[in-house]
Every structure is written in structure tokens, then in C-alpha cells.
Amino acid sequence: MTMWAQRLGPLGTAIRAAAGIGLILLVMAVARWGLGVNATTVGFAFLIVVLGIATAWGLREAIAASVTAMLCFNFFFLPPVGRFTIADPQNWVALCAFLATALVASHLSNRAKMQAVEAREHQQETERLYSFSRSILLTDNTQPVGQQAARYIAQTFDCPAVALYDATEGEIYRGGAGDLPGIDEQLKRVAMDGVRSADTTRLLMVLPITLGGRPIGSVALLGLCCSDGAMEALVNLVAIALERARSAEIASKAEAARQSEEFKSTLLDAIAHEFKTPLTSIKAASTSILSEPERVAPDIREFTEIIDEETDRLTLLVNEAVRMSQIEAGKVLVEKQEQHVPSFLAHVLSTFQSRLEGRIATVDADNDLPPAFFDPDLIALALRQLIDNALKYSPPETPLRLTAALVDNALEIRVIDKGKGIPEKEREKVFQVYYRRDASKGKVPGTGLGLHIAREILRAHGGSLHVEGSAGSGAEFCLRLPLDRLPPREAARS
């Protein structure tokens, strides 16, 4: 009867109170007409019954039983018997003491019972949270963590229906045998506002999932009755699981990218090695032919000169491809050497003679510039990327300029063309990996790596690379290198 009455709420309380009153009346009848015991014995019997009711059912039922026991004790056992009056003042004291003892004992018994119930509930919540956290740690990386978390919540907390919204992925995952129709919009609203929502009629709770004060999703729980602390711990565990899965995914992608770059670098090294052998042979043959011009016909000498130039160009391209792959793989090794800047710029520009096709290309650098320390191969590679970019994106009849000057204790080299320029909103995007402007896709050859690699080279030197100029009047790529007056080893000694 107890379990059935507990499910009825207030009606169950009334039923239990009536049953307690019935027990008091039964004890009174047995003591009055069955056993004929004295008032003291009956008082102790009533007290035991009241304490038993308080322990088994609660304070309200015990109060009803206490009042009933007091009235029965007064009417049937205290003189004058059969009337609700007391002749002896001492009996008033005894009656009040009985009633106070019954109420206090009932209250203490009920409080102990409630504390025991709360302790059991807290223990149960702790065990469920531990079980859920253990399940979260053992998630399957091949399945969405949100789907697994929703399923684990439903299983661990006996929740009829669970819906979990991952704001980063934009997906809603469901768990449990029940359904939550129309919950999608509420989940997104709670995730956006960061404020919980509750529907007491349906026993539905929608909680935001936050990490570091930043909302990353929300979860809807149907029929889950837990303390606020347990709810908060549950949501925090879900947030940690989502972030842990996301961090693992990012780390996995980063490791895959690193391995891919290392593999590409190794492959290019192998290919470059295979290319260098025939290129060296071709170079040796062309040099040998050109070393004795009097023994070679003019037309053959002209063709041999072309072969010699193109061999140098192929060798340079192979070496640049290897260096670019090493830079992408994070294997940049900077070996600084003293360089005369005007001569260095003239040499770099000379490698593009075959591509200028009548275009005016000049170097504007003062011969009095102090020598600079940088890796000549890497800086030459960066400059070639910028010059190649200028040749691609400017009309063939427009000039090309390389300038060098000292600005704010740094060497500033500029590559200036007279093309259409780069809009301000795209000036940082052009340095991103594989970025191609919409206007150039399918029209200008390239992979979108050159400018990114050029900037990485400058950063490895402690410098910077940015683009200036206004749209429609050309682009100016500005390289800034710190003026290291000493090579690295001498600087370390000083």
C-alpha cells in the first residue's frame, strides 16, 4: 500500500494519514477493551505507533496520528473518562509532554529519514555521473561523439528521450526510446541565448552546454529528475566530451597534414635527385660544346646556348621545388651570409631574362647600402615568387621595378608592378595556402602556394612580407629584413 500511495501525491498522503489514525484507534481499542491496561502503558504504546508512522511515512502522517492519539488518550484514559476534559492538573502536564514528545520525535525521525533519502539519491547521482564519465572516456572515434553522449545519457540516467545539439557541427543527435517533437528550434534558441528552459508539465528540461563561458550547444532531457548540481556536472561532462573529440580531430588532421608534407618533401627529394643526374650530364655536354665555339657551327652553337640556359633554369626549378616542399613541411634551415644587396637583386632579376620579352625591369638600390645578412637561397626563392607573381598579373608592356632602401633600421625590398593591383580586403588572403583570387582562377597558372611560402621565408628570418598599392594602379610587395650586422656565429659570440 505504501508504494501505491506514494505514487498518488497529496491523495497518497491523505490515505497514509487515515491509515495512521486507524492504527491509533486500533491500539486504543485493544488497550481499552481487550487488555485493560493503564494510561501509562497506553501512552507508551501510542508513542511507539507515532514514531513508527514517522519513520515509515513522514512528518505529516505522524502529526495526524499524534493529534488523534492525544484526543483518544484524553477521552478514554484520563479522568473524567468519556469527556474531553482533564480533572487533575498533573494529567495536563502528562498530556502535553506526551504530545510534545510525539511531535519532536516524529520531526527528528522524519528529518533523519529525509537525510537518508537525500544521501541515497546523492550516492545514486554520483554513481550515475561516474558511469557516464567512464562511458564518455571510452567513446568510439569512428562515430559522432554527440550521438554517443545522447545514447549514454538515456541509458545511464534512465531518461526516456534525449536530444543533443552540437552548435559547431550544426547537428542534433537523439537518444532514448521516446521522441521529442518540435525540440529542434528550442535547442538552437537555448544554445544561442545560453539560458535554460523548463516545461514542468512534460518534465522537460533544456540546458545550454557551455565551455569557458562560450555556448557550444544544448541538451534536452525528458523525465530526468536530478539535483541542480548533478545537472550542471552532466552538462559539463558533455561539453568536455565535445571539446575533447574536436581537439582530437584537429590534432589528427594536423598530424595527417604533417605526415603528408613530410612524404611530399621526401618524394620531391627523390625526384630531384633523379632529375639532377641527367641535368648535370646535359649541362656538362652543353658547356663542353660552348667551350670550343670555333669548332661548332653558328646555328648549332645557338641551339646549344638555349639548351644550356634552359638546363640552368630546370636545375633552378628543381632546387626551388625541393626547398618549397621543405618549407611546407616545417624544415626551414636559415643559413645567413653577408650579401651586397644591389648585386644580389640584379642576380635574382637576371634569372628572368628569358621571360621579360621586352619588358623593362630595373633594380633601384643605392650601392652604398650596408651589407645585409640573410640566407641568399631562401630570400632569392621568396623574391622569385614575387617577381613571378608580378609577371603573371601585370600586362607585358608595363615596367617592373625592384627597390631597396633602409627604413627604420631594417632593409626594405619592394617588388613593384603596374598591374590591376590587389583590393584591400584580399591583401591578407593572398598569403593563405592555396588561395586564388576569383578573377584569376582558370586564367593565370599557379597553385596559390608561392606568396605563402615567401612570407614563411621572411618570418623565418625574423622579417615580414605585406602588400601595398591601390587597386587599379599596381601592387607593391614589401619585404622587410632586420639588419643583422654580424653573421649568426659571430653574433652569438658577442
Describe what is shown at a glance.
The chain is built from 14 helices and 12 strands. With 494 residues, the protein is an alpha+beta fold.
Describe this entry's structure for a reader.
The structure is a single chain. The chain has 494 residues and is α+β, with helices and mostly antiparallel strands. The protein is rod-shaped. It contains 14 helices and twelve strands. The longest helix is centred in the middle third of the chain and has 63 residues. A five-stranded antiparallel β-sheet has the order 2-1-5-4-3, with helices on both faces.
Global Rg: 44 Å
Annotated CATH architecture of the largest domain: 2-Layer Sandwich
CATH topology of the largest domain: Heat Shock Protein 90
Inertia-based shape = rod-shaped
Sheet having the most strands: 5 strands, antiparallel
Q: Strand sequence of the main sheet, in spatial order?
A: 2-1-5-4-3
Low-confidence parts: 1-7, 486-494
Secondary-structure element order, as H and E?
HHHHHHEEHEEEHHEHHEEHEEHEEH
Tell how many strands the DSSP assignment holds.
12
Overall mean confidence score, pLDDT: 78
Please give the count of helices.
Answer: 14
The domain tally reads: 4
Structural class by secondary-structure content: alpha+beta
Q: What share of the residues does DSSP label as strand, in percent?
A: 5-15%
